[in-house]
């Protein structure tokens, strides 16, 4: 309901301003995207041995998105709406509002109100400081963080000069991440299994009411100096991903999800060095909850702990190549091996290499990530060809390997390994 209210309000503002608007621009895109499993699934939808199961389509989506930009002196407006239909998963078919906000601004300050995507941090493809917007995890195939970000209902006040910028953020309405909880989603049995041993698993998440205690907000100070860019940030809000308490009742395990409040203090920098850019980013997070491993009276509760995430990255451009390499550390500081199911350290490395050909009409990309504990990997090769500025076709694969542990982060996603194709028309 809140999305409809925001959209209606912005439409009223737009049509009120239309007679005075100096510029109105329309744009958008339409695409069709299809992916299918590469490997036979290890388990079927009931959690049983899937050796004899057929490979499935994970996505069969057709989507259209329309963007409207309107400008009038110091006021601008964006409405981005669309619709999608997914033959492979009807529950992903929807009408949606990607963004819808109004901007008031002058030479030194601006105020943006509405449904908006807010990006903090300088990491590529991973989230360190960038924790304001939740993600749509209902599909994994061919997705990037840019595709998966969900806009939040927020007010963003910015004060800026040539060298400094201060953001003050208020997010009064909580928006959780979207997960494949529907039974028709091909990822549901992978991420929300229906059985554990001989017991059935039932999943549920709490509803978050609009209230003062659930409000979220933060601040970010950025500086652009001749030798480097810097930013420091603070944020407090509810974790977009639920943490689960497990309770055993006879032959059932009830998984009850809660959204816990966390606090984040972050720092980031980017330093140019010729054709290279050195990047670093870190976040101290207090109040993060992790899956527990200790059972008391048939109950296993999540455990709260402090977390430190840090990244060092290197970018290089030259000869038609774009290369990005990153090393990431994810550490639980007050760790107790007997209470927390996760490993204390999750070191990871990522690599992305892209090469353009034929006057940038053809591009070949390989990106991958490896968890250094278990050597499980995500390997994502792709190739894209532009018939014109408006029409592009892309094909690729997302391959997940288990490494030394089938229960590792990417090992659990082995059944989500797929090949895909996407055709996009922009206007």
Q: Could you explain how this protein is built, in words?
A:
With 427 residues, the protein is mainly beta. The chain is 6% helix and 54% strand. It has helices spanning 2-17, 145-148, 188-191; strands at 23-37, 57-72, 75-86, 94-105, 109-116, 152-160, 164-171, 195-196, 199-205, 216-225, 228-238, 243-249, 252-258, 261-273, 276-290, 299-300, 303-318, 321-332, 348-357, 362-371, 377-386, 391-401, 418-426. It has an 18-stranded antiparallel barrel. β20 (362-371) and β21 (377-386) form a beta hairpin. The protein starts with a helix and ends with a strand.
**What composes the largest sheet?**
18 strands, antiparallel, barrel
Output the radius of gyration: 23 Å
Helix content: under 10%
**Beta content:** over 45%
Question: What are the low-pLDDT stretches, counting only 5+ consecutive residues below 50?
Answer: none
According to DSSP, the number of beta strands is: 23
Task: Estimate the mean pLDDT confidence.
Answer: 90
């Amino acid at each position: 309901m809140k999305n409809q209210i925001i959209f209606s309000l912005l439409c009223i503002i737009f049509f009120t301003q239309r007679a005075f608007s100096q510029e109105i621009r329309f744009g958008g895109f339409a695409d069709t995207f299809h992916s299918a499993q590469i490997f036979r699934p290890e388990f079927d939808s009931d959690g049983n041995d899937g050796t004899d199961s057929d490979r499935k389509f994970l996505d069969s989506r057709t989507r259209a998105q329309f963007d409207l930009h309107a400008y009038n002196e110091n006021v601008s407006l964006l409405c981005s709406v669309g619709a999608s239909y997914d033959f492979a998963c009807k529950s992903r078919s929807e009408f949606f509002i990607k963004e819808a906000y109004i901007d008031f601004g002058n030479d030194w300050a601006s105020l943006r109100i509405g449904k908006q995507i807010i990006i903090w941090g300088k990491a590529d493809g991973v989230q360190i400081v960038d924790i304001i917007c939740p993600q749509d995890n209902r599909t994994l195939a061919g997705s990037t963080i840019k595709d998966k970000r969900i806009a939040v209902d927020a007010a963003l006040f910015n004060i800026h000069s040539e060298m400094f910028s201060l953001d003050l953020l208020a997010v009064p309405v909580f928006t959780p991440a979207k997960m494949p909880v529907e039974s028709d989603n091909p990822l549901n049995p992978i991420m929300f299994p229906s059985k554990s041993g001989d017991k059935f698993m039932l999943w549920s998440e709490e509803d978050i009411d609009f209230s003062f205690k659930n409000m979220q907000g933060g601040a970010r100070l950025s500086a652009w100096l001749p030798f480097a860019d810097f930013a420091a940030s603070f944020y407090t809000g509810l974790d977009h991903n639920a943490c689960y308490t497990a309770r055993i009742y006879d032959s059932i395990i009830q998984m009850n999800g809660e959204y816990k409040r966390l606090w984040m203090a972050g720092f980031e920098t980017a330093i140019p060095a010729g054709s290279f850019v050195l990047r670093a980013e870190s976040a101290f997070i207090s109040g993060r909850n992790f899956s527990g491993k200790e059972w008391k009276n048939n109950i296993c509760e999540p455990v709260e702990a402090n977390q430190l995430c840090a990244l060092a990255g290197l970018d290089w451009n030259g000869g038609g190549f774009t290369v990005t390499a990153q090393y990431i550390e994810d550490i639980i500081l007050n760790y107790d091996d007997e209470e927390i199911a996760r490993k204390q350290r999750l070191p990871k490395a990522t690599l992305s290499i892209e090469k353009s050909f034929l006057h940038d009409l053809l591009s070949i990309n390989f990106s991958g990530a490896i968890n250094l504990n278990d050597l499980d990997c995500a390997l994502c090769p792709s190739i894209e060809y532009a018939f014109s500025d408006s029409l592009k076709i892309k094909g690729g694969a997302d391959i997940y390997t288990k490494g030394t542990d089938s229960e590792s982060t990417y090992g659990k996603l082995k059944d989500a390994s797929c090949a895909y194709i996407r055709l996009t028309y922009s206007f």
